[in-house]
Write a structure and sequence with these properties.
Rossmann fold
Length: 247
């Protein structure tokens, strides 16, 4: 991840999705942001360029902390997303990209409850998650996937946790047929490695352009299928009755 995520088409496309959602839903000047599951820090570094308020990143892996510090990111801490070391209503937005699927998150409801608690009323949660359990392959074994989702499942999960869902779309749709074939091949011929390999410059540019077309479509309507699911949800400002605790 550290070697390729600055320039790899998939990561660049995910950050562009994040930027599009940010401009639409996060209107607070200099918002206070938590990157929950910051990995090697490329998204956290990107956030630094979007706001005057330095973001905070947490990750369970000690290696992630080391890679973040290699990028010059000091506001990082080793912690679990299920037990966030922050006070209530501390952040305007929580970003968590490809984290809730992981085998080290056994209780997703508890993690979402933790996100809701640290968000300010009206605060925004942005998630990305892998789609479709039937796509589970040796790639998922390599990246420690415990669960792949559907859009309906994501929406229901967030509503049960007390969020209002603003946007829920599949993406990586136009490349989906080729990706399905590659994943089915991996089922038949398992590999010990993930799919994350550096593409050639031409392929990187082409795939990036395809994702740009998708983002233009997503501005108009949610995409009906794809390799990943991107969700934007909001913590309600007020409720007529208290939200039950998720356990």
């Amino acid at each position: 991840m550290f070697a390729v995520e600055d320039r790899h088409w998939w990561y660049a496309g995910l950050r562009a999705m994040l930027g599009q959602a940010w401009r639409r839903n996060l209107c607070v000047p200099n918002p206070r942001i938590l990157d929950a599951g910051c990995g090697t820090g490329a998204t956290l570094q990107w956030i630094c360029g979007q706001t005057g308020e330095p973001p905070i990143g947490i990750d369970l892996a000690a290696d992630a902390m080391a890679f973040c510090r290699q990028r010059g990111l000091a506001a990082v801490a080793q912690a679990s997303i299920s037990a966030l070391p922050f006070p209530e209503a501390a952040f305007d937005a929580v970003i968590s990209l490809d984290v809730l699927y992981h085998r080290n998150v056994p209780d997703r409801a508890r993690a979402l409850e933790a996100f809701r608690e640290v968000l300010k009323p009206g605060g925004v949660l942005m998630l990305n998650l892998p789609a479709y359990g039937w796509l589970y392959s040796s790639h998922d074994v390599a990246v420690h996937t415990a669960h792949r989702f559907t859009r309906v499942e994501c929406v229901e999960m967030l509503r049960a946790a007390g969020f209002d869902v603003v946007q829920a779309t599949y993406w990586n749709t136009l490349l989906f047929p080729a990706i399905v074939l590659a994943r089915l091949w991996r089922k038949a011929r398992p590999s010990p490695d993930s799919d994350l390999v550096p593409p050639s410059g031409a392929a990187n540019c082409f795939f990036g352009m395809v994702l740009g077309i998708e983002r233009a479509l997503i501005r108009l309507f949610p995409l009906p299928f794809g390799l990943s699911i991107f969700v934007v949800a909001r913590k309600p400002i007020r409720r007529t009755s208290p939200v039950p605790k998720v356990s």
